[in-house]
Design brief:
It contains six helices and 37 strands. The chain has 703 residues and is mainly beta. The relative contact order is 0.14.
């Protein structure tokens, strides 16, 4: 990356901090566990990790994008399309996903929200009951195994003493409405946090209405002074969420609120039904040793109606039809031992464990027509049992070798096995059964130097890997029988250096420079008739800079800002297929072409005024640079900057706390592209963001 982007920013941050720095102890920071698997301050960890604890003022707080926008390095786009999950990428990893989340590991209270193949979703993240969201970036993410270009972990709050009952309701533009009820408390050895949230929307665009019910319960039982058992249960119901599909550039410019004609023709929509439960047992064995055991099980049903033309379904050999019907059972566990003592008189912590995750998916495909009626389930075209499981072993250590130095390192060995059993074999549709196994060992190492009480310097390095998901293995480029088991996993080499700065009780900042080089990056080979095939690209690179800053500028006046500049490109040329009807890659992509879905830059800043009660107000701006939408780099979504304004009055007296709030987003009423559908086969790359929108609501707490 060019140094002209780094020097002015780094110099400016250091100048501002040093000008106000006093040699005083750093203030207490939020505690995080994702990087080290034990409670530590992020200021003392040689890795880029941030925590979001509260939603922005006056937000709906139903989408992950609302919580993490002030954290650099992560892009979480609210697609305004609840038939598709949020788009989440970290430092450019995961940007290729057109649905769901890939390349980023997801967890709720230590329970995986990513399947063993790396495919995940955050639709069941219940933010109303959450205490915090942690985002880990860089090499140490590899300690979470396959597809860990970064880690996002949500933690449900523990029960409170005194007990609280919370109720919230908010509504506004585009038919948005959210209501929630939450109870949390402590009763003897038991603490609880139980929540139910209802959300519905008419949608900014035509044919984009949705409804979502989310329930989450966390119940902890303190068995004795050394043991605790925690039960986490959640449920999600999304019935018939409408999918407006993307728009072409011409359609977007003509009317950003319109819907693709095919969406109405086939009534494109998606239903999701999920239930999941997990148990975590923590046992302190003695002063040095402790044990943590986690187990979980869940079911997730998905039915989706696509817009694949009838002629394509009928004439294309091996077509899976236009209706996807998935029934998933998944589960697994993790057992971890931790030892804390001293080595050479300095604190040492070692953690070692094993993890097992399993997914068994019954995948069926049907035609999306019956006779002349479109958008209904027709004849069966696909029936298979897909199973993927992993078995991993990991260890990591954290040693404070001197007062000013900490070393941290670890290694993980991962083995991921895929097996597909084809139960639909017919003329023109041969047996597609098969198996494949991927494995990798990923070491990481980091060092932290406490240069002064207000400045910590760190560096780290590691390797990572990412297997294809079952969706990417689904079809072969040569159209032969069997899944695309010839695809190789991507391997990456990651490095990072950074500063963590805390010159005063209220001020803190961070600066990180990173680079990741990948071999065998996955990219599209062909995209025809609803069937996407993939190929490996020899080399790719992601490099950039992240900066964050927050301070209390005056009494009750707080400022927060973050910025990410990212260069992501293919480093070797390859061929892809873009012409209508092409059956094999034939169009060259030059070395140096930008990886699609990765914005050049992302920024956020917010200024908030107010005490814990009384009048409060806030002004914020979110900005995103241009984003390429296809491997050829021939089209891109332009950058934008959007302003938001919020205000509230908080009444806090006795057992009652009432927060009435209002918010306006996109103050200038700009037409912008909020998210993109990478490499869409119909050229419908663009998903517009809403114009000026309003929200009002009230949240009530009774203690």
């Amino acid at each position: 990356m060019s140094m002209r982007h780094i020097r002015p920013l780094a110099g400016g941050v250091l100048f501002a901090l040093c000008a106000t720095a006093a040699a005083q102890d750093a203030r207490l920071a939020p505690v995080v566990v994702t990087a080290t698997r034990s409670a530590q301050s992020p200021y003392d960890i040689p890795a880029a990790i941030d925590v979001a604890t509260t939603p922005p003022d006056g937000s709906l707080d139903v989408n992950l994008s609302e919580r993490v926008q002030a954290i650099p390095g992560i892009v979480a786009r609210d697609r305004q399309n609840y038939a598709q999950d949020a788009q989440v990428s970290i430092r450019g990893f995961g940007a290729r996903s057109t649905f769901g989340i890939r390349g980023v590991r997801l967890y709720t209270d230590g329970i995986p929200a990513s399947m063993p193949d790396g495919q995940g979703q955050v639709s069941h993240f219940n933010l109303d009951s959450a205490e915090r969201v942690e985002v880990l970036r860089g090499p140490f993410s590899a300690l979470y195994g396959n597809a860990s270009g970064g880690v996002v972990q949500l933690f449900t709050a523990d029960g409170t003493d005194p007990a609280e009952l919370r109720f919230g309701v908010a509504g506004g533009s585009n038919g948005n409405f959210r209501s929630s009820v939450n109870a949390r408390g402590v009763d003897g050895p038991v603490d609880y946090n139980v929540d139910f949230t209802h959300f519905r929307t008419s949608g900014y665009r035509e044919h984009s209405a949705a409804r979502r019910e989310s329930g989450n319960a966390k119940i902890g039982w303190k068995i004795d002074e050394d043991a605790k058992l925690t039960l986490v249960v959640n449920t999600l119901d999304v019935p018939d969420a409408q999918d407006p599909l993307g728009l072409t550039r011409r359609q977007y410019q003509a009317d950003p609120r319109q819907v693709a004609a095919a969406a109405k023709t086939f009534d494109t929509r998606k239903s999701v039904d999920q239930q999941q439960a997990g148990v975590v047992y923590d046992q302190r064995i003695d002063d040095a040793n402790s044990l943590r055991v986690m187990g979980y099980y869940g079911r997730r049903g998905v039915r989706q109606y696509l817009s694949i033309p009838v002629a394509t379904q009928v004439s294309q050999p091996g077509s899976s039809g236009g209706v996807v019907d998935l029934d998933n059972e998944y589960g697994g566990g993790d057992a971890r031992w931790t030892w804390r003592d001293t080595l050479a008189g300095m604190p040492l912590e070692v953690a070692a464990g094993v993890a097992y995750d399993n997914q068994e998916q019954h995948r069926q495909g049907y035609e999306n027509f019956q006779g002349d009626t479109l958008g209904v389930r027709g004849a069966k075209r696909r029936d298979e049992i897909d199973r993927v499981f992993d078995f991993d072993q990991y260890a990591q250590a954290d040693w404070r070798v001197a007062d000013d130095w900490t070393l941290m390192g670890g290694v993980r060995h991962s083995e991921v096995r895929f097996r597909s059993t084809d139960r639909y074999v017919a003329a023109g549709n041969p047996d597609d059964s098969g198996t494949v196994t991927y494995s990798a060992t990923t070491p990481v190492f980091g060092v932290l130097w406490r240069a002064t009480p207000w400045m910590h310097v760190y560096a780290n390095w590691g390797r990572g890997f990412e297997t294809p998901t079952f969706s990417e293995l689904g079809y072969r480029t040569d159209r032969g029988p069997g899944l695309a088991f010839g695809l190789k996993p991507s391997h990456s080499r990651n490095a990072e250096i950074g500063l963590k700065l805390r010159p005063s009780e209220a001020m803190e900042a961070g600066l990180a420079v990173f680079r990741a080089d990948s071999d065998d990056e996955l990219a599209v080979a062909t995209n025809l008739g609803g069937r996407t095939t993939y190929q490996n690209i020899a080399r790719s690179r992601r490099q950039g800079i992240e900066a964050s800053f927050k301070d209390e500028l005056a009494r009750n006046l707080r400022f927060v800002a973050s910025y990410t500049h990212l260069q992501a490109s293919f480093r070797t040329p390859f061929l892809t297929c873009v012409a209508p009807g092409c059956s094999a890659p034939d169009t060259p992509v030059d070395a140096g072409t930008r990886i699609p879905g990765v914005p050049r830059s992302v920024g956020y800043a917010a200024l908030n005024y107010g005490a814990t009660s009384g009048w409060q107000a806030g002004l914020d701006v979110s900005a995103m640079g241009a984003t390429s939408v296809n491997d050829l780099g021939t089209e891109s979504a332009p950058g934008y900057a959007l302003f938001g304004l919020s205000g509230s009055y908080v009444f806090d007296q006795g057992p009652w706390r009432v927060n009435t709030f209002a918010r306006v987003d996109n103050l200038a009423d700009r037409h912008v592209i909020g998210s993109v559908i990478v490499n869409d086969g119909n050229g419908r790359y663009y998903e517009p963001a809403p114009g000026r929108s309003f929200l009002v609501g009230v949240d009530v707490r009774w203690r």
